Amino acid sequence: MSEPVVAKKGPYGIDLEPGKYWWCACGRSANQPFCDGSHKGSPFSPVPYEVTEARKVWFCGCKHTKDQPVCDGTHATLE
Ligand code: FES
Ligand code: FES
Predict the structure, then answer these.
(1) Rg (CA), the chain
(2) Ligand at shortest distance from the CA of 63
(3) Domain limits at 66?
(4) Is the pTM here over 0.90, yes or no?
(5) Does 4 reside within a domain?
(6) Is position 27 within any domain?
(7) 75 by DSSP, 3-state: which?
(8) How many domains would you assign to the chain?
């Protein structure tokens, strides 16, 4: 199984307006934490995330969360 790239060993806290967002699951995007299409050719696909009211979201940067696309603290266990 291929592993995602650890884009950052911690979450990205982003203030979002209502809308639909695409979280980068592969870790290769240059526009973290969002997908920029760089996953092409990899087994990963972006994960959609809908925001209904403006708020801050802590997106997983390490890409190893069990609660995609948000940080669940797993980054603390990575080598
Ligand atoms: Fe990935 Fe926290 S940044 S679990
Ligand atoms: Fe990572 Fe699209 S660039 S999922």
Answers:
(1) 12
(2) 1
(3) 12-71
(4) yes
(5) no
(6) yes
(7) helix
(8) 1
pLDDT (tens digit, 9 = 90+) per residue, 6-31? Answer: 999 999 999 999 999 999 999 999 99
Mutational test site, ligand 2, from 28, 59, 62, 64, max ligand atoms within 8 Å of CB: 28
Residue 66 pLDDT greater than 90, yes or no: yes
Considering every ligand atom shown, identify the ligand nearest to the alpha carbon of residue 59 and give its number: 1
Task: Identify whether 37 is part of a domain.
Answer: yes
Please give the single-letter amino acid code of residue 39. H
Cis peptide before 33 (omega within 30 of 0): yes
User: Which residues have CB under 6 Å of ligand 1?
Assistant: 10-11, 60-62, 64-65, 71-75
In this predicted structure, what is the pLDDT of residue 45? 98
Pocket of ligand 2 (CB under 6 A): 24-26, 28-29, 35-39, 44, 46
CA 56 – CA 36 distance, rounded (Å): 21
**2 within a domain of the structure (yes/no):** no
